[in-house]
Amino acid sequence: METQNVLNVSAQRTRVGLPLSAVVLAFIVPAISPLDRPACAADLEYGAYLASECTTCHRADGEFEGIPAIVGWDEQHFVDALKAYLGTDRENPTMRTIVKRLTEKDMEALAAYFRSLAK
What we know:
Blueprint: H1 3-16, H2 20-31, H3 41-54, H4 75-84, H5 93-100, H6 104-116
Helix pairs in contact: 3-6, 4-6
C-alpha cells in the first residue's frame, strides 16, 4: 500500500473515531450470544443430567407446589436468576449451595433443558 493511501485510511479512521470493523463487531457479537443459539442435543442431555438434582424440589411438569416452577423460562432469565444466588439478590441457602458448584456452561445447559420441557 502506498504511503498516501495509508495516510488516507488513517485520516478516515480519525474522522469516524472507530474503524468500520469495530462498529460492525459491536452489532454482531451481541447477536451471537451463546444463549441466543438453539440448544443442541448435547446441551439438552447435559442439562437433563444436571437437572436430576433440581427436580428433587422443582417439578419437571412445571407445576407449582410451594417451590417455584422453572419449566419454560427464558434462558437468559433462568441464568440470571441462578447468578442472583451468588450475590445478595436471592438468599435461599439450599440454592446458594447448589449454584456455587455450577459453571456458566452448567447454567446454560440447565436453562436450555428446562426451557425445552415447555414445548
